[in-house]
Amino acid sequence: MECLLTIFLGFISMLLFCMFCSRKRKDGEPPLIKGWIPFLGKALEFRKNSQQFLSQLQQEHGDVFTVLIAGKYITFIMNPFLYSSVIKHGKQLDFHRFSDSAASRSFNYTPVQSGLFPGMSDHIQRSYSLLKGPDLDLLTSSMMTKLQQVLRCRFLSSEESGSDGDWQEAELYEFCKCVMFRTTFNTLYGHSEKLCLDQLREDFEKFDGIFPLLMARVPIALLGKTKEIREKLIRFFYPQRMEEWRAPCKFIQKRMELFQQYDTLQDRDKAAHHFAMMWAAVGNTIPAAFWCLYHLISCPEALEAVRAEIISVVGEKNMKLIFEEDITITRQQLEQMVNLESSINESLRLSSVSMNIRVVQEDFCLRLGDQHSINLRKDDIVALYPESTHLDPEIYDQPQRFRFDRFVEDGKEKTDFYKCGQKVRYYLMPFGSGATQCPGRFFAMNELKQFVCVTLLMCEMQLSENQQEAMLDKSRAGLGVMPPVNQITFKYRTKKPGDNMKREE
Ligand code: HEM
Asked: Where does substrate bind (predicted)?
C-alpha cells in the first residue's frame, strides 16, 4: 500500500514538474502542440495515423507547427513550396548526425561520428558512387541473371508440384519477399553454398517487425528476443565469413576494404555496418515490389499497357527464350519503359511514408520563402512529411487512386505538377530529398523494373477472387515504404512456349 502511494505521489510530482517546467512557445517560434502527457506528448496520436493527425494540425495551425513526440520537439513543414528552404540549409539543419545516432543505436555499432574513425563518414559517402553510373550497369546485369534464376526455379518447381493443371496460387507478399531478398542479397553480397538465406530472411523479418519500436527509442531489453536476433544477424556478417563469399559487388567490396583500414573498428562493428546496409537495401525494396505488382495485377488496363511495353522493348523472341536461357535487359532498355517507371512511381507515391528529418545544429532563424521566417532551437528536429504532398488533391487528381500513367506525358516522363497554379518541384519524394537522398535509389528503381519485367515475361498473373483490397500497415509510417497489413493471394501460370501450345490444343 505504502509502495503504491509512493509511486502515485512520484507520478503526480513528475506531472506537476513537467507542467511547470515544460517548454513554452517563444516569439517567432511556430505554434507549439505538446499534449498533456509528459514526455510522450502526441506520440500515440502520431503513431496511430500520422497523416490524419498532421493534416488536422495543419488545418488548425497552418503549414508549420512544432509537436512534442516522445521527448522530441519536431517542427513539421507541410507545404511543398517551403521544402527547398529546409533542403538548402544543410549546415544548420543536419541529416547525418541524426541518421548516425539512430542507425548506430538500432544496429548496435559505435557511431561513425564518435571521433574514433577520422574521415570514415566521408569515405562511406564517396563509396555510394558505386551504386550509380557505370557500376550500376554491372549491378543491373548481375541482378537480371539472379532474378531469372530464382524466378525460373520458383515457377518451374511450383509447376511440377502443382495439382490443378495450369494455375497455381500463392501469397503475394511472401512471393515478393522470397524473390527480392535472395536476389538483392546475392547481387550485393555475393554467394556461397554455406549461406542459409532462408534463415537470414526469417531473422531479418523478425528484427524488421520490431524496428519501428527501436526507432521510437524503446529499450531493446523490453523487446523480447530482439537483442538475441540482432546479434545473430550481426554475426552473419563477420569479416571472416564474408571473405568466403564469392563475387560481392564493387560497392560491398569497397566497404569491406574501407572498414579494414580502421584499426579502431572492431570486427563486430564492421559486421553491424554490413547488416545495416542489408537492411537499407531490402527493407524498402521488398514492400515496394509488392505494391508495384499488386497495383498492376489489380488493374487490367495497367497490366496490359505495361506488359505490351515490356514485350515491345525486350522483343517476342527473348520472351520465348526466357525459360531456356538468360536474356539481357540493359539499363538503357529499362529507361525506355515509361509506363513501367510511372507505375512504380505511382506505387511509391501511394505507399511511401518517409519523413525527411533534419536536426537543428544551433538556435537560428529559418527563412521560409519570401513571406515569413521561424525561430528554431538547437537540437530540435525539422521534418518534411512528403505523404501530405503525395496525397494532395490539388497536385494529384483523385490522389487515392492508382493511375499507372500518372507520370507519363506525350510518351515521356511527366515532371510538371501544379498546386494553386504554381509548379511543384518536390512532388514525389520516396527517396528523401537534397544531398541526403537515398544513394541506392537508381539501383532500387532498376531492381523493381527488372522484377516486374521478368515476372510478367514468365507468367500470367491474376488476383484471386473474393478478397479484401490490400491495406497499408500504418504503424511503420515515417520509416519508408509501408508493407501490406493483410494477406493477398494471386494466381499465376507460366508462359512457357510449349505450355501455350498445349493450352491451344
Ligand atoms: C524502394 C526502395 C528504397 C527506398 C524507398 C529508399 C528510401 C530511402 C530514404 C527515404 C532514405 C533517407 C533519405 C533522407 O532522409 O533524405 C534512404 C537512405 C538510404 N538508403 Fe535507401 N531506399 C530504397 C532502397 C535502397 C537500396 C536498394 C539501397 C542500397 C543498395 C539503399 C541504401 C540507402 C542508404 C545507405 C541510406 C542512408 C544514406 C545516408 O545515411 O547517407 N536504399 N533510403
From this structure: 105, 284
- Show Cβ contacts of residue 327 under 8 Å, excluding neighbours closer than 6 positions: 148, 314, 318, 321
Whole-number average pLDDT of the chain: 91
Rounded Cα distance between 52 and 56, Å, is: 6
Average pLDDT score over residue span 249-260: 98
Buried b / exposed e along 31-45 (16+ C-beta atoms within 10 A): ebbbbeebeebbbeb
| Minimum CA distance residue for ligand 1 atom 37 | 438
Domains of the chain (ranges, CATH numbers): 123-357+380-504 (1.10.630.10)
**Residue of 140, 284, 445 with the most ligand 1 atoms within 8 Å of its CB, for mutation:** 284
Which pTM does this prediction carry? 0.93
DSSP secondary structure letters along 326-357: -----HHHHHH-HHHHHHHHHHHHHHEEE-EE
Q: Give tens-digit pLDDT for 407-426.
A: 999 999 999 999 999 999 99
- SS3 call for 176: helix
**CA–centroid distance for 104 within its chain:** 18
- Would you state the cell numbers that stand for residue 164, as one nine-digit string? 490443378
